[in-house]
Design a protein that fits this description.
Length: about 110
C-alpha cells in the first residue's frame, strides 16, 4: 500500500500505520525545500506499507536518532545472545569433560 503525502503530524514516524510495528525507515529523500522541509519516501520493513510524505528536518533527525538507538539495542542484544551461546557451549564442554565423554584421543 503506497500513499502520497499521508497525514502523520502527531504519530511517531517509526510506527507503521498499517502493521503498527516500529519498522518504518526513510527509503529516499525525493526533494528538499529551502524552508527545511523534505519530501521523503518512508517504508515499513515489516509489511508492504510505504508513503511519500513531507516532514521538517527536526522530525527526520528525530526518526534517524530513534533508528540509531534501535540499531544499538539490536547490536547489544546480538552480542548478549552470542555471549550466552558461548557460555552454554563452554558449560556443555565442561560437563562432557567431567563425565568422561571427551578423551585425549578425541584430539
Ligand atoms: Zn508495516
Amino acid at each position: 500500500m503506497r500513499r502520497l503525502f499521508d497525514s502523520t503530524l502527531s504519530r511517531d514516524l517509526r510506527f507503521c500505520p498499517t502493521c503498527r510495528q516500529p519498522f518504518v525507515a526513510p527509503r529516499e529523500v525525493l526533494a528538499s525545500h529551502e524552508d527545511g522541509h523534505h519530501v521523503v519516501e518512508l517504508a515499513c520493513s515489516n509489511c508492504a506499507w510505504s508513503a511519500i510524505q513531507l516532514h521538517d528536518a527536526a522530525r527526520l533527525i528525530e526518526l534517524d536518532q530513534a533508528l540509531d538507538r534501535d540499531t544499538a539495542q539490536i547490536e547489544a542484544a546480538a552480542e548478549a545472545l552470542a555471549l550466552s551461546l558461548e557460555l552454554d557451549r563452554i558449560d556443555r564442554f565442561a560437563s562432557a569433560l567431567h563425565d568422561g565423554h571427551i578423551l585425549p584421543e578425541d584430539f
